[in-house]
Amino acid sequence: MYSPIVGVGDQKFGHCTKHRDAHPSVSIRDNKGSFRCMSCGYRGDTITIVQDQEGLDFMGALRWLIEEFSIEAPERMYRDQKRERIKILEKAGDLNGAMSILMGS
Ligand SMILES: [Zn+2]
Asked: Does domain 5-68 have CATH number 3.90.580.10?
């Protein structure tokens, strides 16, 4: 479960998702894109939270954020996904499929 953020500017806080947290213990630093719980020391960034809350690895959390917020994926990620698909098709013996990805169709 995600926690709402309270506060404005550089002074933003939220409830820790790792334990019962009656008062917001998590300090959020927008300028650094990070957070830290003053009570238990849980810390990280947006990707850390998505990894923990959705049970995903790093790349899975990136994909979740891209889909959830309609973020345009960096070109490098598309290239990496394309390479992965080509590898799978090559392993499966589908050279026509691999070629069509290479040719951009
Ligand atoms: Zn905590």
From this structure: yes
pTM of the model: 0.60
Sheet holding 43-45, edge to edge: 5-8, 11-14, 26-29, 34-37, 43-45
71 Cα–ligand 1 center, Å: 29
Q: In this predicted model, what pLDDT tens digit does every residue of 22-42 receive, in sequence order? A: 889 999 988 788 999 999 999
Classify strands 11-14 and 34-37 as parallel, antiparallel or unpaired.
unpaired
Domain ranges of the chain: 5-68, 74-105
How large is the angle between the packed helices 58-68 and 46-54, nearest 10 degrees? 100
Query: 84: which 2 tokens?
Result: 């992965």
Instruction: Give ion ligand 1 contacts, CB < 5 A.
Output: 16, 18, 37, 39-40, 42
